[in-house]
Amino acid sequence: MKGSANNIRRNYTLPRSRILRGRENIQRLFRKGRVLREKHIDLRYLILPGQPGICLMGFIVGKRLGKAHERNATKRRMRESYRHNQHLVSELTESGTSGIHGIFIAKKAGIPYQEMEQQCRSLLMRVREAREKDEAREKDGAS
């Protein structure tokens, strides 16, 4: 039963190497990326064809959302909620032909963790669905 669904072991770590960094990467996301919105979080993402296995995410909390300790707590909650749900997109990048860069952008500080995680999961599921549709469209176009 090595391959059964009950035996799946997920890696819930989020090392710095999987955090999106660099001004150029972030500017490219704002220029070319798609946006998905939830009540308190936006996700701006870009699918990178020809770069399988790459799944980098960043986290932004603007200064207008409160004092430093409030922004830091919001960013920690966003990172943690992504860390617990990263498998929704990382499995696709590892098995597919393209990678993903993305940024979670907080629209409000002080959101309870459960609500933040639910919204994060919803956004990641929508990215997954969009990517699967894109791959299906590419297959239909190639056939």
From TrEMBL:
Record keywords, A-Z: Endonuclease, Hydrolase, Nuclease, RNA-binding, tRNA processing
Enzyme Commission number: 3.1.26.5
Reactions this protein catalyses: Endonucleolytic cleavage of RNA, removing 5'-extranucleotides from tRNA precursor
EC supergroup of this enzyme: hydrolase
Recorded GO MF terms: 3'-tRNA processing endoribonuclease activity; ribonuclease P activity; tRNA binding
InterPro entries recorded: Ribosomal_Su5_D2-typ_SF, Ribsml_uS5_D2-typ_fold_subgr, RNase_P
Entry-linked Pfam families: Ribonuclease_P
Keyword Cell cycle carried by entry: no
Keyword Nuclease: yes
A cellular component annotation (GO) from this entry: ribonuclease P complex
Any one GO biological process: tRNA 5'-leader removal
Family label: Belongs to the RnpA family.
Function per UniProt: RNaseP catalyzes the removal of the 5'-leader sequence from pre-tRNA to produce the mature 5'-terminus. It can also cleave other RNA substrates such as 4.5S RNA. The protein component plays an auxiliary but essential role in vivo by binding to the 5'-leader sequence and broadening the substrate specificity of the ribozyme.
Description of how the protein assembles with itself and partners: Consists of a catalytic RNA component (M1 or rnpB) and a protein subunit.
Protein name per Swiss-Prot or TrEMBL: Ribonuclease P protein component
Origin species: Natronogracilivirga saccharolytica
